[in-house]
Amino acid sequence: MGAPKYVLLSYDGEAEFEGEEGYEETWALCQDAEALFADPPPPLRDVHELLGCVPEGRLSEALTRARAEGSAPLGTLTLQILDKTGATVGEWHLEEARLLGDRPCAQDLTLRDVTIEGTQPDHNLYDHPRRLPLPGLPPAGRRR
User: Fold this and answer.
1) Are 2 and 31 spatial neighbours (Cβ–Cβ below 8 Å)?
2) Cα angle: 115, vertex 120, 121; to 5 degrees
3) pTM for the whole thing?
4) Is the CB of residue 55 less than 8 Å from the CB of residue 65?
5) How far apart are CA 47 and CA 77, in angstroms?
6) Helix, coil or strand: residue 65
7) CB atoms within 10 A of CB 20
């Protein structure tokens, strides 16, 4: 057996901050390591449907771009959750969002159903809104 290349240590940041001795403890001597310096896997990107929308401003501009190019970046989004009176009762966030496409709303042809994808941050206090898909409707847009 060859000489170890790595030492695996435990670490107690609080003990180090408080100036305690022995905040690191040797757990193992290792001859080699695999994937030690590998990039972390990309965060999961979920696809979401926003139903019955009236696109305005940058969303309207992004729809034009997505129709021409297949998708369009949106950045970070906040979806405010409203009660029956229209008062905000919470927020749900989506990071690195992309607009994937749109289609006419099945309930009202003057509205649009919009498909977006993105990554949920860890700080979301609420789970994303859920609704069963309408039967017989294809997904709006496509994955890229």
Assistant:
1) yes
2) 150
3) 0.58
4) no
5) 14
6) helix
7) 10
Q: What is the pLDDT along the chain (144 residues), one digit of tens a residue?
A: 688 888 888 887 777 778 877 777 888 889 888 877 777 777 678 898 999 999 999 999 999 999 999 999 999 998 888 888 888 888 888 899 999 999 999 989 999 999 999 988 776 665 555 554 444 444 444 333
| Centroid of chain to Cα 11 | 30
**Rounded to whole angstroms, how far apart are CA atoms 70 and 118?**
15
Q: What tokens does 102 get?
A: 């749109």
Are residues 31 and 1 in contact, defined by beta-carbon separation less than 8 angstroms?
Answer: yes
Which amino acid does the sequence have at 132? L
By the 8 A CB rule, do 45 and 118 touch?
A: yes
Name, in order, each residue with C-beta under 8 angstroms of 65's C-beta and a sequence gap of 6 or more. 72, 99
